[in-house]
Amino acid sequence: MRSIAVLMTGAVLAAATACGGVHSPGATVQGDHPRALRIGLAYDIGGRGDKSFNDAAADGLDDARRSLGLLQVQEVAAQPGEPESAKVNRLRLMAQAGYSPIIAVGYAYSDAVKEVAPKFPGTKFAIVDDSVASGPNVTNLLFAEEQGSFLVGAAAAMKSKTGDIGFVGGVESPLIKKFEAGYTQGVKYVNPRAKIEIAYLTKPPDLTGFDNAPKAQDAAQKMFAAGADVVYQAAGASGAGVFKAAKSAKGWAIGVDSDQARTADPSVRGLILTSMVKRVDVAVYDYIANLMDGTVKSGRAVYDLKLGGVDYSTTGGHIDDIQPRLEQLKQEIIIGKIRVSAG
């Protein structure tokens, strides 16, 4: 099997760039594969390199590229403050260029998928974190974020010395409310008297809360100054600001989506207590593999604790002493003894 650099037509590349697209410099052609695909991946704000949500999707794409053999990959990313029309154009351009499947990373693409997918019935679409966009050619890749957040909330309560615990959400949306809900339940399950401080950086339609590290740092600093000693962030690339605040306050931070004790800036990794790992990489890989096998289905595919879709990380050894208890709670959620509400 031979590999050569991906060649895109100048018109498609220029159009993608004009609406916020970023072509992946590492994409390759593996043209000898008998079932090779042309895959389009549309990232949320922050794109590849956010060390969180988008990077998890990129990892799934990279795994598929290495092991399954893909014809061509086009990667594009949303830009802060862009109009909804930019997302529509981004997906439409990839569909017109023959990319199928097109994978939209994040609920911000819901309206765009609803508009574009019906116009291209022969194109397969998948969207992460959204169940509203639907159709015979749309697969919804969903997660039980509340279950994983319950476990890191329990960890926060076990490790807190002050009983004062914080949560910073990027955008006050139904999705991020699931993280907050599970986290709050986990904290209260362990310590019913714990104080929980909650802050959101923006509200829809302003999605810049996922890409504003200074604002996140300010929100977390206020929590630490008020007595919090553990702060969980569900804020995408903004989470880097929470890590900086934890470092300054000599407190703990909890990462999200990826094992951020491995992916965050090395200067802050030591203060990341744990991360709520959301296996977007597994969902993206599975979707591509199922498409190649002819087994992909439209509609909802939910990744929960039982399926390994969410979990907590142990990098750094900071929760080794409480891990047996966390594993017990995990199993009780899986078997239904503990029921975690999504909101």
TrEMBL record:
Residues 45-341 form the ABC transporter substrate-binding protein PnrA-like domain. Its main location: membrane. InterPro entries: BMP_lipoprotein, Peripla_BP_I, PnrA-like. It comes from the Bacteria. It is a lipid-anchor. Keywords: Cell membrane, Lipoprotein, Membrane, Signal. The keyword Endoplasmic reticulum does not apply. Residues 1-18 form the signal peptide. Belongs to the BMP lipoprotein family. This is BMP family ABC transporter substrate-binding protein. It comes from Microbispora corallina. The lineage of its organism: Bacteria, Bacillati, Actinomycetota, Actinomycetes, Streptosporangiales. The gene is bmpA_2.
